[in-house]
Amino acid sequence: MISELQERFYLAGTASVFEGAGGLPAVQLQGTDGSSAVVYLHGGHVTSWVDSSGHQNLFLSEQAVFQPGKAIRGGIPICFPQFGAGPLPQHGFARTTDWQLDHVGRTHDGDAEVLLSLTESPQSLALWPHRFRAELRVCLGARALGLHLGVLNTDDQAFSFQVALHTYFSVPDISQAAVEGLRGVAFVDSLRDDQRFVEDRDEIEFQAETDRIYASAPDRLGVVDRAAGRVVSIDKLNMPDAVVWNPWVEKAKRMEDFGDTEYLRMVCVETAVIENPIELESGGRYQGGAVLTVSSR
Ligand code: BG6
Questions:
Q1: Which residue's alpha carbon is nearest to atom 9 within ligand 1?
Q2: Does the beta carbon of 138 lie inside 6 Å of ligand 1?
Q3: How many CA atoms within 13 Å lie on the side-chain side of 84?
Q4: Is 71 a residue whose pLDDT tops 90?
Q5: 167 CB neighbour count, 10 Å cutoff
Q6: What are the catalytic residues?
């Protein structure tokens, strides 16, 4: 299967298919500026984004499991059609399902891009009885990575869903990292009985487990790495909510596919639609995403 994909989807200097961890097929994108990204078909999951300075912007656990039916710990899992716990498996089934590779190419702007899609299957229909088509476009540009997610209702009934791009940012030292852009935003704190509070800090720092859903957050957030003088901006596209998560000491120990001290090197800032799920009529289309851009400060 991988050799067939390699023949069909190859663009010299731009994109190639390779056998990734666990023997799973993955696409490597190459930017014109020396940047690169890796997208697994399993989950439509971006696992790596190295910018032109050679910096890896995404955290991937050394204990991540690359196996059908398992979500990869790190990178950018896609939570769909459910965020968190609920009637479906945690964070939905998209992150544990193989997506189809539809296209690789280079855009007019010079970005390397890959298009993947996911449609209903007997397994998904057993969990969530709706016909749909999800389309993911990942594009790698100058110091930027874009994820654009479309969901089309191909059913004859309306359905609703939640979605999140569950981005794990790599930070060299969590004590030097902060998330900015959330001051004044109301959040639900999963660690305090889902009570609502309002964020009063300009920069959120990490000294303990953090697990919060910020509702209707501004469209630009930032992950600041003070040690390196870098910031990764997150431009949310039609994804009003944001989740900030770090498991810290005890939860890290409980997670089998996460090293005990890896919480020191990551923070998740997720762009999401959680509070008000998207309602799609038959034939309706949702389009959202996030653009991540690196800059120095
Ligand atoms: C976050 C949730 O989005 O995902 C956390 O807010 C959860 O509560 C985390 O622990 C990781 O979830 P999972 O299913 O990948 O272990």
A1: 245
A2: no
A3: 13
A4: yes
A5: 27
A6: 166, 270
